[in-house]
Amino acid sequence: MPAPNANLSALLEANKKHVTPALGRLHDHIIVRGEGARVWDEQDKEYIDLTAGIGVTNLGHSHPAVTAAVINQVQQVSHVQCSIAYSVPYLQLIENLVPIMPDKSLDTFFFWNSGAEAIEFALKLVKRATQRPNIICMQGGYHGRTFAASSITRSKTVYTLGSQTMGGVYAAPFPYWHSLGVSPDTPEEELVAMAKIQLELLVKQQVAPSDVAAIFCEPVIGEGGYVPAPASWLRFLREFCDKHGMLLVIDEVQTGFGRTGKMWASEHVENFAPDVMTFAKGLANGFPLSGVVSRREIMEKQEPGTIGGTYAGNAIACAAAVAVTEVFKTQPILENVNARSKQIFDTLHALRASPKTANLIADVRGKGLMVAMEFRTDDALTQRGATGPIPKDIGKRVQKKIIDQGIFVLTTSCFDTIRFIPPLVITEEEMAAACKAITSAVEEVAREG
């Protein structure tokens, strides 16, 4: 590796003051190189990255197949505007996606640049298709920071702080113990039963079901705390939407492309199909690309010209995505996800069971390599019946100690939660190093009190 770069350090110091303060940042340095699950900053410090750009670089940093595809495409044509003509990778991407959709009814696509934009289009699509004005979203759900997307986001108030939001949005409780005010050890079937009652009540008291265009739901609540949706809950939403003539939109922006151990998180539910699905993040391994897919009969409700975008379906980004789909065909990515998932879950469950650290941890949850550890608050302590004093700011302290050991990790949700979202190609040795750092950090905070 090269020595620390003084020129880059000077560049950072001279210009970071001009970056908007509205951005938060985990690491106040420049990342100059990445390879697989590792990154290096301008001071030549190496980190194992358990963030993957918030679930974007699913195949790791600078994956050689993606890099080769991008170089090849940029030497041919860098962009073909989607309203003017097709590009080769745009059509190749559709060809590769059609066979791997969670249901064969999902056969008509639109590509945009970001997950939030995909949600914006999905909102227009369902309202136009049903001629209904209102939307039901999930408490704790996250769908983006743009105007309409943030209006159906319920994970944190910061995403709509000081701004007006879109009307006609109603939030239903998600089967998550926080949402329902019960113990974290409440059985799943009880959580689902309570959430069903609340959704039925919502359409009796707050909004007529005949005025609801769609229900939006993540198969794993993302920024709201990495909470998997029980299969029975998703099946109930499917039945509920069919009963009332609503569309069901499943947001796989963060969960798609292998993140949960299957290509799509909704594939964990047998005989389940959404009407509309959004996806992004891992699609192009770091290049800006997102998608919306639905049945053609629904997509045909959107008149030509009502959607578009200068950069939508960029040829380079599509070429990267084609390479991503090919890697999934030829390499054991999903097998590695499930093996590394067991590795980190074993570590976290051991911490929750250990007499030394159990009093700090309220919940361990997730699916595949979308993993969370929630720490206790006074409420959580009381709900679970634990005893003894509870340390303050557990998550932030644990996070700092993990980062100090050379591991990037992020927090999430309005509760005290750390999430682990590494590249899907992380090795057994790299995960072992990360698990060792996590264990050390939690145990040290427990000792400090």
UniProtKB/TrEMBL annotation:
Its cofactor is pyridoxal 5'-phosphate. Transmembrane segments: none annotated. InterPro entries: Aminotrans_3, Aminotrans_3_PPA_site, Class-III_PLP-dep_AT, PyrdxlP-dep_Trfase, PyrdxlP-dep_Trfase_major, PyrdxlP-dep_Trfase_small. It comes from Cutaneotrichosporon oleaginosum. Keywords: Aminotransferase, Pyridoxal phosphate, Transferase. One of its GO terms (molecular function) is identical protein binding. Belongs to the class-III pyridoxal-phosphate-dependent aminotransferase family. CDD domains: OAT_like. This is 4-aminobutyrate aminotransferase. The keyword Chloroplast does not apply.
